[in-house]
Design goal:
Shape: globular
Radius of gyration: 19 Å
Helix content: over 70%
CATH architecture: Orthogonal Bundle
Order of helices and strands: HHEHHEEHHH
Largest sheet: 3 strands, antiparallel
CATH class: Mainly Alpha
CATH topology: Arc Repressor Mutant, subunit A
Number of strands: 3
Mean pLDDT: 93
Strand order of the largest sheet: 1-3-2
Number of helices: 7
CATH superfamily: Winged helix-like DNA-binding domain superfamily/Winged helix DNA-binding domain
Strand content: 5-15%
Low-confidence stretches: none
Number of domains: 1
């Protein structure tokens, strides 16, 4: 691969990521949550329900941090807790209709405009883009896991 296209692609991916970060920051602001809370809501929109330990793993949080986050989101009526149907020791977290409605109000125009992107490319081109993004996501996730194993600078200084 040419170093020119690799550099250009790197710049474009970095700019895209910055744009996604900006969008998420504004969504969080408008929903009255922080960015980790927003990521939790995104997970629940995709899965409809999850256990607190599953959320902790996906978000890289401690169980105490997840409890505090879920308390904040429940206070906003964005999530609800339910007993697990087969294990009474466990709880399931579900996104509420209020959170879904608010997210749709805010994201609907963006999702509608995304049609322009899809209409611009052939299905074959979109397959290639999807493959690129999926491989890139996998590499990124590997490095998220790697970074989670490194102690924080402040902890190492003690």
């Amino acid at each position: 691969m040419s170093s020119d296209i690799a550099a250009r692609l790197g710049d474009i991916v970095q700019a895209y990521q910055a744009s996604v970060d900006d969008y998420d920051r504004e969504l969080a602001r408008l929903m009255g949550v922080n960015e980790t809370d927003l990521r939790c809501l995104e997970i629940l929109i995709g899965s409809k329900e999850a256990g607190p330990s599953e959320l902790a793993t996906q978000l890289g949080l401690t169980s105490g941090s997840v409890t505090t986050m879920l308390d904040r989101l429940a206070k906003l009526d964005y999530v609800s807790r339910h007993p697990h149907p087969t294990d009474r020791r466990k709880t399931l977290v579900r996104i509420t209709q209020r959170a879904l409605t608010r997210a749709h109000e805010l994201m609907g125009p963006f999702l509608d405009d995304s049609r322009r992107v899809l209409d611009r490319f052939t299905p074959q081109q979109l397959e290639l883009v999807a493959e690129f993004l999926d491989v890139n996501r996998s590499v990124q996730n590997d490095h998220v896991q790697r970074l989670r194993t490194i102690p924080e600078e402040s902890a190492r200084a003690r």
